[in-house]
Amino acid sequence: MTSTIFLSSFTGALLGTLLLTIGRHQWRQSQARRWLGRAIAIALYLGSLLLLQLQLDSLQAFFTWLGMLSLGAMPAIFLSPRLIATKTD
Amino acid sequence: MQRDTLKKFYIVHSWVGVITGILLFIICFSGALSVFGSPDLKLWSNPSLHTKTSIDPAAIDQLVERYAVDVPEALKHEVMVLLPGAEAFGDLYIWFESEHGPEEQAIALHFDPSTLELIERLEGNPEVIFAQSRAVLTMEQFITQFHANLHMGKLGLILTGLLGLTLMASIVTGLIIHRKILKEMFTFRPWRSLRLMLTDTHKVLSVWGILFHGMIGFTGAFLGLATIILLPAAALVSFQGDQEKLLETFQPEHMPRLSGEPANMSIDKVLRHSLSLGGVTRSIIILGWGDKNALAFTNTVNVDGTGEMASETHNYQLSSGKHLARATAFEMVGGVSGPVLDLIAPLHFGAFGGLTVRIIWGLLGLSTALIAATGIMIWVERRAYGAEGKLSPENYLRLNKFTIGSCSGLVLACASLFWSQRLAPEFIMALFFCVWAMSIPLAFSMKNNYQSNRLLLGLSGAMLMCVPFIDALTLEHHLFNSLDGSHNHLAAIDATLLCIGLALLGIAKRLPRARREEQHKKGRGTKALKPSNEEVADDFLEDQPPAADIVA
Amino acid sequence: MDTPLFSAKKSRLLAATLGVLLTSTLVTAALPAYLPFSQGDTIAGPILLFPFTWVALFLFSLITTSIQRVWGGLSLLSLSHGLIIFLALSSH
Q: Which residues pair with B417 in a beta bridge?
């Protein structure tokens, strides 16, 4: 698999999760924004899968995608406190 | 669900975690390394593979014919050629075996993959000579075997299999006790307290990686217990306990009906065809050697993500080289079970999509290991500095010291494998266990856990950073003379080790030197006397994200 | 005074470790005798289900309040499936 495809797929998974996290924490009051965020996140996740299918057969791409979703999501959650407005107690 | 039942699940989850945690870290960390066993670490460990060798079917054909002349007929019941290459068996091996049974005998020949010169000849019981051939392990063989059975034979296999089962139990109980799972998936509070940071890390890694962890638990349990429990159980009723008969019924390889007419063995035609199919041809098994009806079975794997995900067996008539059939490893089982069985090995080993899948699987394996480690740390934190513990904090902190010594010590021991491979290859196993064993008293001797963790991880990083330089001193081809693009794979591995070493050093530097005082004082101040059931529930519920749910 | 969450801890631990392993192995070995699937699924299906069988019995043995019920359940499963194995082997 070329590194471009890998990095693009990973970035899609990471950004998708970041959007969902931001929506959950920052856009509580705006349902429209939250749903837009969800729609974009789903599109990013699906794009992540389509990119992998450029290089791998369907079954391999599917399992790789499942792993990629996990791998992309974890750093997104760990980075989120630095990107989202914080409140100290 | 009733509150008491929920508390029970929580207690089961935490105790299963603390009992199996260190061993789970060991298996998962070594597993994450083993993902890169073939071809990366195999290539790195074997200087004979540093220069790319191609398989010459004609040369291999001549080699097998030449040595078969001197082998007694009884030992030609099964002829096995294990092909060379980083994605196959490293060097070239030819095995001549008699019929399976108590008097089984074999001759094993080991050849240099480039020159095809005979390196070693072993004769005797197949299990004995297999063990002899593995007397000196490369670091790749060592770490993959360590992951599979902790170098403890059948007992080790049972242990790793049982760990897979307990991992599955932990996942199920973890899912049950976390009622607000959707909220917890998106919650990370690193600055409120150490315990909350650990708890949130544990939950984020667990939930987001749940499919991977579940798959590893299931496939790990299956692979570990397959030969000890599962195969005997499967054969008991249907085949009256005859495991050989069970395997013969469902595996593609089968003994041909011999004609009694001699014929030439066209290994080169078989090998040429198998290599032309794409994928990697790893081995050839020949049954009925010398007979017109002799059959050859080649085993091929697709490692670049195209073609069949499971390994395949291609069946040939050996006298003519004609391709007869192909099947995946468990295709003959059929139904729903066959395809599921076919997926177990490729999914567990991450050997189905090339380097990028190995990287994904390796990193996710590290996350499974981290879940185990953070789980133990949460357990200790709740008791040493929280309201749950009945013993003094020092007693619980001893567990922390042992955990750091075992887990970070394992990281150091794995880093030392790279040094041993180059500088003292006969002592790989001894040095590994020495370094690991010394890490534990080191952890106990340090002022606090944070400093021992910093030291062990820092040392690991420093060792890994030195590996390319050791290669430069000991090898003909290395990173610094491969910048023109020759020996790319080896150079890339050395460069990766350098980067990982740097990263580990960076992490070690950023880790705190001691526990933050305000948390320590706060923990002591609130250590009130409460009945243990209440403490468990209240403490657990305190860590749930609040309704307002602000990050940090 | 609060009743403890887990009664008969030693007995329960024994059930959860040796008892569950033995029971799940017996169930796995006996299932091919009466599953109505194709030969492949009848033989391979139970061994694929083994991890789930073990987890279910493991949690049953730890979570069930009554220790008598735990041992009763494990014994019933073990004895019944042991009998099935015996009858299947005798008939060959």
A: none
Closest CA to B438 of B412, B403, B465: B412
Q: Do B12 and C63 touch (CB under 8 A)?
A: yes
Q: Are B505 and B461 in contact (CB under 8 A)?
A: yes
Which partners does chain A have (≥3 C-beta pairs < 8 Å)? B
Do chains C and A touch, with touching meaning 3 or more CB–CB pairs less than 8 Å apart?
no
Q: What is the pTM of this model?
A: 0.92
Of B164, B218, B236, nearest to C29 by CB-CB distance is B236
B45–chain A nearest CA distance, Å: 24
Which residues of chain C lie closer than 8 angstroms to B11, CB-CB?
5-6
Number of other CB atoms surrounding residue B340 within 10 Å: 16
Instruction: Tell whether the torsion through CA atoms of B410, B411, B415 and B416 is positive or negative.
Output: negative
Q: C15-55, pLDDT tens digit by residue?
A: 999 999 999 999 999 999 999 998 899 999 999 999 999 99
Option in B211, B354, B551 nearest A81 (CB): B551
State the nearest Cα–Cα gap between A11 and chain B, in angstroms.
Answer: 13
Interface confidence (ipTM) of the complex: 0.95
Beta strands in B34-151 (DSSP E): 78-82, 92-97, 106-111, 118-124
**Digit-coded pLDDT (tens) for B103-157:** 899 999 999 988 899 999 999 999 888 888 877 899 999 999 999 999 999 999 9
Q: Domain for residue C4, yes or no? A: no
In a domain, C18, yes or no: yes
Q: Which residues contact B461 (CB under 8 A, 6 or more apart)?
A: B415, B500, B501, B502, B503, B504, B505, B506, B507, B508
- The domain in which residue C23 lies consists of 9-90
Compare all CA atoms of chain A with the CA of B193 and give the residue at the minimum distance: A89
Domain assignment of residue C84, yes or no: yes
